[in-house]
From TrEMBL, chain A:
Binding-site positions, [4Fe-4S] cluster: 313, 392, 409, 453
GO molecular function: 4 iron, 4 sulfur cluster binding; DNA binding; metal ion binding
Species lineage: Eukaryota, Fungi, Dikarya, Basidiomycota, Agaricomycotina
Ranges where the DNA primase large subunit C-terminal domain occurs: 304-481
Note describing how the cofactor binds: Binds 1 [4Fe-4S] cluster.
Keyword entries, A-Z: 4Fe-4S, DNA replication, DNA-binding, Iron, Iron-sulfur, Metal-binding, Primosome
A Gene Ontology term for the protein's cellular component: alpha DNA polymerase:primase complex
Protein name (database record): DNA primase large subunit
One GO biological process term: DNA replication initiation
PANTHER family cross-referenced by the UniProt entry: DNA PRIMASE LARGE SUBUNIT
UniProt-listed InterPro entries: DNA_primase_C, DNA_primase_lsu_euk, DNA_primase_lsu_euk/arc
Role according to the record: DNA primase is the polymerase that synthesizes small RNA primers for the Okazaki fragments made during discontinuous DNA replication.
UniProtKB/TrEMBL annotation, chain B:
Name assigned to this protein: DNA primase
Entry EC number(s): 2.7.7.-
Protein family per UniProt: Belongs to the eukaryotic-type primase small subunit family.
Top-tier EC class: transferase
Keywords: DNA replication, DNA-directed RNA polymerase, Metal-binding, Nucleotidyltransferase, Primosome, Transcription, Transferase, Zinc
Amino acid sequence: MFRPSTRHNLPSSSSNPALEVKLNKRQSGVGSGGPSSRWPYRLNFYDHPPTLDITLEEFETFAIARLRVLSHIETLSHRSLPYSQIASGITTYTKTHLPLASNTARNVNLDEERRGDEIGHWVLRLAFCRSPDLRSRFVRSETALFKNRFETDDIHERAAFLRSLEFDWQIVDESEKSIYATELRSCMNWGTKDDQFKAESWFKVPWYTVPDLVGGRRVFIRAGMAYVPQSLPISLVLQAFASRLEKALELTAKNLPRLDEDERLGPVIDHLASSFLSGLGASDYQPVEGNGSSSVVTAEMVDDVARKHFPPCMKNLYDRLKRDHHLKHFGRLQLGLFLKGLGLPLDEAVVFWRRMYGATMSDDKFNKEYKYNIRHSYGQEGKRANYPPKSCQQILTSNQPGTQDSHGCPFRHFSPENLTSFLLTSYPQLDRSGPEMREILDSVKSAHYHVACTRVFEITHSIKKGEGLGNAESVSHPNKWADRSRELEKEVLDGIKKKEDGDDMIMD
Amino acid sequence: MPIPIRDEPPSSPQVMNAFYRRLFPYRPFFLWLNQDQVPAKLFTHREFAFTLAGDVYIRYNSFHTADEFKKEVVRLNPARFEIGPQYSARPRDRKTLAAGALQPQRRELVFDIDMTDYDEIRTCCTDKKICKRCWGYIAAAVKVLDHSLRETFGFKHLLWVYSGRRGIHCWISDPAALDLNDDQRKSLVTFLEVIKGSKEQSKKVNVRGSKDEGDLHPALKDALEELKMSFVKLCLQDQDCFRSERGWESLLAILPQDRDIIGPLRSQWQADPGRPSDHKWSDLVSAVAVLKKNQYPLFRKFEKAMEDVVLQYTYPRIDAEVSKHRNHLLKAPFCVHPGTGRVCVPVNPDLVDEFDPDTVPTVGELLNQLDNAPSEPAADVTRRIEDYDQTSLKPYVEMFEKHVAAILRDSRGAKRAFKEESMDF
């Protein structure tokens, strides 16, 4: 037996009589169904470490159950799905793998569930506090999980829980409300009926405590204070949850070396951290194992490969580059890493870019300002990180193109007219008035960019609808498009070759 | 472009060296970054990056004192230098620290507006050129941004600095701004950012929700009132944005595609290609006014779209990446722009309309003024008159000193309050 307490937050001791009492209560509460005083709410801010005895087996099983949920949440959020879909995905998954019932639930051992939830959380803290990267990912998934539970929680229980946290939020008084009535009202996008407005009340908080509401322009701000409607406190709560967890993790990291280490725990914790990492690396692009030299692309070949195998985003960048002999930074990065993934070695990449810039740039300028970046993206400069090619997810969501930029995803970042004409010129197989074109534009309209892109792939490669990149997989990475496209070409070529060989045989 | 008065190019190493030795206002510069008389972490843990002649770039410099900083600047004689954040340790010790131990912590909130982002809507100059006329766009942007940062976000210590060629920077030194983390900076930028979309997207203002028909956020409504004036003066009259076919076609492209309105306008304008922009705009206004009686929903749609046009043509186009991350480096005030030789001087946002980039002193002019200045106390080392007092840099340094004094007053006040509180047990 051991205590999973990290020993620095609380002067913990199992001989504390108060705790004994609580423990007994828990045991006596088994089967009765009602919430105990230790876990009165379904939601938990995990402010106090559990100071109770658990078995080694529980230590591991609770942690693994939670880990599974967290990595599922992370994959879900990487899949560029609409929020409602992510939310329902989390809800169904947690229902089976990490159930947590509300107080009104019957036939459930509430304490047992809540105890598992709490222990799982604290064990994972130990596993994930070690590096800033792990910490931030842990905080992100934990916050998503908390948000999901918060949203699905019973209204009354949630209100009671919020009261128990005792935030000191300043309430906007009536006179101030009437001063800013028009402004407040125009930020209420959910209907502006008079009685609704009258019934609503507002919290006043520094704007930086609710960054998501500010970024979405969903609240009125004046003199640095954001006016948050009471119906929207979730983002305040989430912010509080995330920042407390972040601070606690940093503290844990500092104290971890001083934890009087039980040698049975170390391996378990290590294993937990590493399995989370490997579950995630899979979303990165792994180049297919080609047979040796055949997968290498040289600078001369790029043009030919571009014509046949480039996905729309890369075709657009490449066309721009050919026309203007220049690309802005993120454009170079997006295309350059893609080419690397395609199998363009570093020296060929230098040749390629030098040639593309052409006479518009002196050798001197190129060597000084551009070569470094190319070498950097191949992990030969700076911190020597080997950057993977950007996935659709990254292209769609990070580094939004500015007014002069050409990078990004054509399906998302082009206006419908420009997208149409771009697709028609780049892919002659498409027909302006055909039903396929309409289908593609409809997908774009409903923000299913990967669906639109996959459809273009199917049409341009004469594949049946729904087949995608094989086994109905949709395009999630530009390099997957290119790989599949080259694979298909190879199959065709092999087919012809076989046939020719067969012909030869007959000739003989 | 004024003729350099000395024989050297606008910013030759000799000229720069004289500038760093005699003119650069080290004292207020140090106080501005440090916010205290005694060197604090805000200065000692701050990154400086130098660009030397021949594009050699040295990052992660840091200094214990203002004197040490000055010595190094004079010794390296950089073409320009940039300011980064306060790190968790001294940036110069970077190599002796554990990996990941050097994290950016505090940093002024900065903004960068650059004329290149306006290339598609300015008609007077292109590329690197800038004139008094296209400065109008920057002026409009500064007014809106300044208002929004002060009124909406409640910041007080904003320093606007001319970037030396075709843009302007803003540095906010309020403690609340220094403490913002990257997420918070990002959300603030997203709040302020209105013009989004790549080259291929014609309508770049989408601020009314997914169906494009909601009301504007109060902050944008405020900005719009201000911008309507600039739009008439700047886009319709001065720049005459819709005179060329390309100009008015891009206007028509961002309006609701209603054939009964767009069609007649297009043919009218094609028949009279020289029609000035303000007439074209009135054509549009009267065509839309007809709808008010019978097709009110469509009228509202057009009205909103026309507000969006005003925003698209005049709302600040900020370089968002600069503001989002604490570790982004930005050229320091009072640097010399290597291409033009002009000093990056502070700009008074209330008088930004009158500001003319062509009258900003160049480093060559300043040194010439120094040479011609009465030189009786030259041998007297103890004199209190600084060299820049004898040049046209003086008003700019004074403006800067006033700004710094206000920051110091506030930080002293905060410290005193803190002390009193901690005594109070």
